[in-house]
Design a protein that fits this description.
With 426 residues, this protein is mainly alpha-helical. It has one domain. The chain contains 19 helices and 2 strands.
Length: 426
């Protein structure tokens, strides 16, 4: 999870060391919470989620690798804290008021899958800006930047495809792609090593606090918190996945099944607690990581204690000045190549969710919901500096309604209309 969690911090303008610190703490608290809450570990690691990048970046407006101001980070933190509260509430509803079916009424796969797709595709321009050099201040882009970005992109794709199923190495295509891109960029004189050579051995993470009083706080809360609807099915799927393999191992060892799939609601509560910790310290909003699930399946190690150790390692790494220096030295062109792949994968995973849930795309209701979310979310995010600037609400939303959140809300409302006024099936 390390390359992805760090990349999120660099993309949205958060402090890398702080994100690692919060990630480690959120993981440890969640594991201990599950151990003492339900009597068993839920073996999941909590890292930064890509689902929130567009919403957070709209608040911080950060350049790659350059931390945003404490004020803007604090505003984004307000949204992350509320995200945690929403996850906790959804978890409580699932746990005590009807299970997952109650959530599916409000957040069916056509909504969650389409929103997930929108999040990835809406970030397409940001990825190309980084890859071309536009994000670095070059108005027309740069052949040099494109070269490094394309080498990074194709290296990452090749590692992803040809190392699949190759054990531990197959879990690290993003890291390997970044290393190849970094080496090429260094050979072309694009890496500034000053951040490494001037770094201290020991550094203290830069802690910031949530800001609920800024003129942008309401915008941040709405745009960031509503993205929780995209991580609910993701988190649930990861729990089902790891639960299946843990139970299979128990059967092999002739032991009682662990039954993790029974704790969907509690798992979302832990997700919410993790986001609350991130929001209070200055970490990015997170989710439990599927990448770690795959590694646990390969190693057959589902130990909660091992994952607590991973959390401790992340916290220790947060105090390494040289690590922060290495991460900061990564050229934007490298991150652009990675982003083209990663953002596209996010979008494709949303489509995969629609396929996996067998959403009927010949149903006019589903077409209407998906179409509205797609066009409003993607078109509004890319094409408008100020989306839906409603005069009566400019005091609350000075930059207009956040487009992706608006698309998600429209989709939810359309679905509720169809639930209340059911169309004829003739």
């Amino acid at each position: 999870m390390f390359p992805a969690t760090v990349l999120v911090a660099l993309l949205v303008g958060f402090h890398v060391s702080t994100v690692l610190l919060a990630s480690g703490m959120a993981t440890i608290v969640a594991l201990l919470g599950s151990r003492y809450g339900i009597g068993k570990f839920i073996p999941l690691y909590y890292g930064s989620s890509f689902s929130y990048i567009a919403a957070v970046l709209a608040v911080t407006n950060a350049s790659f690798g350059v931390p945003a101001s404490d004020e803007l980070i604090g505003v984004a933190q307000a949204g992350i804290v509320v995200t945690g509260v929403i996850n906790i509430l959804i978890g409580l509803i699932i746990r005590y008021a009807g299970g997952r079916k109650a959530i599916d009424v409000v957040l069916p796969p056509i909504v969650t899958g389409t929103v997930a797709a929108v999040i990835g595709f809406a970030l397409g321009k940001a990825a190309l800006d980084m890859a071309s050099g536009v994000a670095g201040g070059m108005a027309g882009g740069s052949v040099q930047w494109w070269t490094v970005a394309m080498v990074t992109l194709f290296s990452t794709i090749l590692f992803s495809v040809y190392l699949q199923g190759k054990g531990f190495l197959g879990m690290l295509p993003i890291l390997f792609g970044a290393i190849v891109g970094y080496v090429v960029a260094a050979a072309m004189g694009m890496v500034n090593f000053a951040s490494i050579t001037s770094a201290s051995v020991f550094t203290v993470p830069h802690i910031t606090f949530p800001n609920f009083t800024s003129s942008l706080s309401a915008t941040a809360i709405v745009s960031i918190a509503i993205m929780a609807i995209a991580t609910v099915p993701e988190s649930t799927a990861h729990l089902y996945q790891i639960g299946l393999y843990v139970d299979h191992l128990a059967e092999e060892q002739k032991r009682e099944k662990y039954g993790l799939s029974e704790f969907i609601g509690f798992n979302l509560i832990l997700d919410g607690i993790g986001d609350t910790i991130n929001g209070m310290l200055g970490g990015s909003a997170g989710t439990n990581y599927g990448e770690n699930n795959s590694l646990m399946v390969i190693s057959r190690n589902y130990s909660g204690v091992s994952l607590i150790a991973a959390g401790v390692i992340a916290i220790v790494m947060a105090f390494s000045g040289h690590l922060a220096g290495v991460v900061t030295s990564i050229p934007t062109a490298v991150s652009g190549g990675l982003a083209i792949y990663l953002f596209g994968v996010i979008g494709m995973q949303g489509i995969a969710l629609l396929i996996a849930e067998k959403v009927d795309m010949f149903d006019p209701k589903n077409l209407a919901i998906g179409a509205a979310i797609m066009v409003i979310g993607i078109g509004g995010h890319i094409g408008f500096n100020s989306f839906l600037p409603i005069p009566a609400l400019t005091g609350i939303f000075p930059n207009g309604w956040p487009a992706i959140a608006t698309g998600a809300v429209v989709g939810i409302l359309l679905n509720l209309v169809f639930q209340v006024f059911k169309p004829s099936t003739k």
